[in-house]
């Protein structure tokens, strides 16, 4: 039964005037307005029921999936996760992107922790890490070269700017390295030509400074 929008009391429909009337507050309303309001409320109520029912079904399905997942061995769990990820890749990526957008501080913290953990792992497992890296490169050489080219083209101006800044900042260091190389070559020529004895104390004055 429809109720009064003003006092929530039951409305009575007058067939002759096609209007609803409230016996308590004496207000009257067009039948079309009340029927439309009742329809919207009923529709929203049904949608809410359907949502609650769908949530229950999803929750039960998630519980069942967790029970099945917990029964698997370690290797089977890995394969199960891979299969699940492939089936829900787009949805998971969208969810992760939305979460990252809403939690920038947490993302920053996770990245910093990840960098520290990765650096620690590489330091403790240097040989194993290098072997894994070389194997991955050998198995994905063409793909990685293609990605590198794409990244270079997409960020060409930025990369060239960084290279120019690096060259400028290390200009003095390059000059020192060049002078040391010349000094080393000069010392070697003098030894070969017999100009100086490498076992002589005076030879120390022309040695490259490293």
Give a brief description.
The chain has eight helices and three strands; from the N terminus they run βββαααααααα. It is mainly alpha-helical and 210 residues long. Among the domains are: 1-69, no CATH class; 178-206, no CATH class.
Going across the biggest sheet, name each strand in turn.
1-2-3
Output the number of helix runs. 8
Query: How many beta-strand runs?
Result: 3
The end-to-end distance, rounded to whole angstroms, is 96 Å
Strand content: 5-15%
3D architecture notes:
- The longest helix has 41 residues.
- 2% of the residues are buried.
- The mean pLDDT is 84.
- By secondary structure, this protein is mainly alpha-helical.
- Among the domains are: 69 residues, no CATH class; 29 residues, no CATH class.
- It contains eight helices and three strands.
- Strands 1-2-3 form a three-stranded antiparallel β-sheet.
- The protein is 74% helix and 5% strand.
